[in-house]
Fold these 2 entries.
Entry 1:
Amino acid sequence: MQPRESNNRKGEAAEPVMSRRRQQTASVGGTGVPVPDGGTQDASGVGRRAGGDGSTRNWRDPPRRPTSGEGGPYKPKAKGDRAGRESEGPVVPLTTGTKTPSEGRGPAWIAPVDEGTCEGMAARGPNSPREKARSLQDRLFVAAKADGQRRFHALYDRIYRVDVLGEAWDRVRKNKGAAGVDGETLKAIERRGVPEFLEGIRERLEAGEYRPQPVRRRYIPKPDGKQRPLGIPTVSDRVVQMAAKIVLEPIFEAGFRDGSYGFRPGRSATQALEAIRLTGGRGHRFVVDADIKAFLDSIDQGRLMELVERRISDRRVLKLLRQWLRAGVLEEGKVKASTLGTPQGGVISPLLANVYLDSLDGMWDRQGSHLGRLIRYADDFVVLCRTRADAEEALRRLHIMLGLLRLTLHPEKTKLVDLGMGMEGFVFLGC
């Protein structure tokens, strides 16, 4: 549309009149950049006409004030999202660009500076170490679940990732615990500086110079008056073991059976007890109350590594696990080498124990599930059967299955119980 010309004296050039839309969007002052239609554009990206247009006269009625579209007068509104209202700190762009994507199209990558949490900012992807570690676990779990025969070969570099080590430290600190053989406590590390501590671990792992230290032996009293041996790794070893657990656990978790409840994410002793109560109430009144003799001290390390290698092929990860198993125990000033079992008190030990006993769960599913239901919490388990004959056969088969794992049932603590009419009872997990 050509601009209208105003009434002018004879011989004078016609003066273009701005349209109402252009008049409303024109602005005064500031420095601009050229735009294709001959105007300029200021730093905010709003185009304006050249200064000459500001002197034009509009012979139409004065323009109306713009409205919000809802029938009321226009008022500037605050942004409707939290990102525009509650940002606690400045942000800087991760990458520069010449074109701003339209809203809802394309990533809007932003990163908070050191000060301020920038809560509510709409950055894509996880930001905190915990979220990043969980995202990694989710991806590993999905991959392991999709292919039960897959062996994972590129895992070691994930163990010393900054976010994984950060999450490992948070978990170790939450669990508390005493110092290991080096005497280094959690509080001492916090005073010295956690970032420097974790960076030292990361550098040793990346360079292949990490070496676990022996476990400090302590004894805690048992209800029967005996003492239970407990191993206390150093804080550094606990952090590395926790980082390895974060990476390895989802891979094995994808294949663990439903009858296992001990030391697994999202499962608890309460759930195990409830499963026993429900199964017993459905006519499974005969119970094999089993107890594995010195389980953690009797695990065959060679057999354990064979089971681990079914899902893990990364040689550096396998070497790391072997180093922990063979680190030895410091007791009475002497280091004793360990060829059997896993270190009691080690962060990685519950996962390795579940890997070992998952073989028992698998054998039972294939060869004994018709006799009764096996419910296991770590090395404590029961088998609930409908008849005494089934319970007796279940006990016989358990001896054979555990023998294949080089384990034995405790002859005095393993028993067959009849729950009918309240005749007998048993204790499971202290209940």
Note: DSSP finds 14 helices and 13 strands in the chain.
Entry 2:
Amino acid sequence: MFSESQQNIKCLAHFPALIHALPGIRMNQNGHHKERRSCLVVSLNCRVKQRLARKSPPHLELHARIGVMSFIMAKKPGRNDPCPCGSGKKYKKCCGLRDPDSLFIPEEDRTGTPFDDYMDVFPFIGLIGQRIRHFEEDGPELNKLLAQFKKRCRPGKEDGITDSFFMSWMHLDLRFGRTLETIAERVLNDPMTARLLEPGPTLIRRLAESYLTFYQIIEPGPETAVLEELGTGKRFRVFYIRELYETDPIPGEIWFGRLVGPPEEALLYSTPYIYDPETRAQFKRAVRLQENDFRRRSPLASSFPRERHFAESQKEAAPFWAEFIVHGIEVGSQRLDEETIRGLSPGALPFIVNTDREEVVFAELSFRVKDEPALRKRLATLKSFEYDKKNDSWVWLKPQNKKDLAGSRSVLGNFRIKEGCLVAETNSRKRAARFRIRLKSRLGGLISYEKTLYRDQDDFPERTPEEIEAQRKETEEFNARPEVQELLRKEKEHYYFKKWPEQPVPALGGLTPVEAAKTEEGRRKLKELLDNYDRWQDADPSLRPRMDFDALRRMLGLPPRVH
């Protein structure tokens, strides 16, 4: 396993440890850790004990195919040249002492699957990471963050987090420094990456975009399994190498892990933590709270398109889940509530809020109607509420912002008249109080207040898969309507062309896009950011209107995207 002494090596000798740290830990539901985690047991298994039936290709051929060996041969310095690892030593006294093949997975440990390809590019991510830690300006900050994580979560220890969790978080999720980029993102921007052949850069990009989160086993199979992401409802067909983990997926189980690659052919890249099916509702609620918190509080939210917010929220939340796992809370027997969450990681996961930053509580107000015809006549004269003819209901909208007349208006509540009652609904206690006062002041003696019922989101039953699928289809059909598409397109263009250019963006060093476009370095970062937006949009299978980022590039004085 990845030992403390290995962590201080400053040359390429470090990378075999990085590689072997990633795969080897087995999870199941039996063992001596049961009293600490009711449905999770960790047992060490550092090597693949059984090879897959089909023969793997010779590793040199595989390395050449993804451009790794060609990079090494092209990059090899002279014996007296400075070592490219950044140690400050001559090459002959540093990495030149090692065989280049030692950077990669030994032939006997290869699986003969695409998993090997990802493992073969990981040494380059590790190389940049070591260079940053020991020789670059952001190194002290990175080392401090890693030391704090190790102290709290004890990676590699029997009572700590797995090495695969720590190594993947360190290189793929942790944002630090002035640019707030991960190590993997810095690899993509490093000139040496341009010397890799495809699919090398694509594999690194997929690793950089991956994240740790919760999935439910929907349909296990002999070589693949269908997993549903709890936070988004997306489904992935995952190639599963059971020889690495020595456990079979069971329908309904909740797996916490990292998937890499497109949904139709993803790979499980980290050792999974396995929980009972009964924990689904609590984990689903927790990751949705994290996404909401990211949108509301994180300075990074403006750096990413909305469809990327869930992924980034999970990258940001990874240390919280590491503490959750290490502290051994028994999910299922103990409620995963806000008090527990804040006790583990202060401020990491606050309650969900509405657009007025009020805690979401569903409120239903009931009024007795004294004269329905007179009430409807009165409502027809009011501008405070907007009538929805299709549903025979009224909508309470937030007043229009005079500085942003083109912006959309938030829905604060709605009400309907049925069987002699006026029933109003909103989503916070403060809004319920305001709604009651507003209705009484506008409608006077035509209605008489009776009661208000409050319900927390946990009070609602978990939806069945059939209900979820029906809701998905209904949403798709609604979003496909031309008038909805046009409204969404206008709102998206208003944000990116009017608001976003004047907002400080962490990925641009705190500059606004307009400010960044004035310097060469800022233009480079702005181009990379917009290229990422295009890639995320291309990968989004939904019916959301497409944004013309080339038009935004022209507005900012940047060249169009190179396809």
Note: The longest strand covers residues 212-220.
